[in-house]
Amino acid sequence: MKPSIIFFTMIFLLAASIMPGCKKDYLNRPPLASPTAGTFYRTDADILSGTGPLYNGSWGGYNGTSLQYIGDIMGGNSTTDNYNGRGSYLSFTVTSTDPSGALQSAYQALWSVVANANVVAYNIKNAGAGASESGRNSGLAECYFMRAAAYYYLALDWGAVPIIYNNSSQLGDTSIRRNNLADVWQFIINDLTWAKNNLAATPLQPARITKWSAEGMLARAYLVRSGLGQSGTRKQTDLDSAKFYAGDVCNNSGLSLLPNYYNLFTSKYFSGTNVPAECLFGLLWVPTGQWFVQNHMQANLAYSSLITQTGDGWGGAFGASPSLLEYFTDPANKADSIRRKATIFMPNDNYPDIAQATGGWHVDTALFNNGKIYHPGDKGNGGTDHAYVKKYVIGSPADNGGFGGSQNENLSTYIFRLSEVYLIYADAILGNSSTTSDPEALKYFNAVRTRAGVAPKSSISYADLIQERKVEFAFEGHAWYDWKTWFYFDQAAATNYFSNQNRGTYNISYNSGNPFVTYFAQDNQTPGTINYFIAPNKADLPYPESDLLVAPGLAQPAVPFDFSKVKY
User: Fold this and answer.
1) Predicted structure pTM score
2) Which of 153, 199, 292, 387 satisfies CB 3.0 to 4.6 Å to 211 for a cystine?
């Protein structure tokens, strides 16, 4: 029996079925419905509609909590408490039965992206005669791009994973094995290569991926793979490929960074049809949509319900990690105030995009150390002794043109920005050298810094790149994956970086017009630091226990993949 067409709404039903607690595995395919592909995908417009849900509903279980816990808490950019066991992401002790649900939610969501991309690709291949070849190829390119994007996270989170390329032929095979990690990365590169050859240079609709999106992601994939299986140095041929594709995007795409970093995270610039050219790939949420097609990140991150005005705002446990706060409070980095203000709430700062009707959200210094999270007064201004999360916190519906609601903000989610391609280009040029003053590397590395109001550098090292990525992409779910890229080729240096990173608690007090930070030891009273050692065998996340039960082959050694089976 051939798989039938998947309706736009069917993907939403699939997303609902993979919420934490439900037993689904990577072999499940989306629900089937009539009519068949041949009668539904009749035109290029039908294909465009069919690929639309790949930009939101399929990713619903990864956006928000899972992205935050893995990318930023485990990546060392965010603090947390141990509610529902989420402190395990801070201490590198996540287990297969993770009570927070983030592990299983991430795993199942990423496989849902793969499954949906495979089904939509099948249906595009069987579309009616009214669909053009270019329309089919463009739709297939979106499917393969999404599949590769999901595999990027799967590979860096779990290592060797099964390569699922055809839901129909692989459906129900619970003995399926994991494939060698090198083959997984080759599969990612193959998908992205096909995508870049068949995507247009300009988006078919606002925020749709383009040739430049695929080339940028190819550069990222080659850069990551350049370290796989290496020891201290990276594979030069992969570095050259990363340099080639990143350089093409940087020098020939005509794209540029949004001039104001702060504006990247306001709905005026990234919602609906308002999409910065800097966004090469984003998750496009519906501010009036149902669960799994709306963005609930603000509900998780905002430290006060007075910010959201919609009854949510449960992010009091989150904020800048000590290592991130140390950067922003270092006098040497005082100029990096634009990124700081866009990233965290700091004392005595005013945030004009929030509580606009009362002149902006002012973080009140008078309430420090009194145990209160927010000011109870008529202005609703927040007082804090913590650097809470600002990025993706945009205020109430009234602050955003009336759009949004409870657990539904009027903002999309960045997955891949042009500034990352700039840093990839600089990294690929640096290669295996200890430092570089190459003009091209400095041009694009410094473009990221000068946009943030920070002085350019005349020479850069790998440590500079790690630090720049940490600050540029804080709370965007990048930090863990950037560390894992480093771990691939230099385990000792990477594990030392995390094992000596302060992951404790702190208090901010106000001293003569300046914030003063006290970092605490394990008792949360004595000044000091808290460090957690990460062993090399903790660099891959455990498989969720429920998935191991239904697919015992996941516990078996990885095997080579037969690429002749994949038909593009």
Assistant:
1) 0.92
2) 199
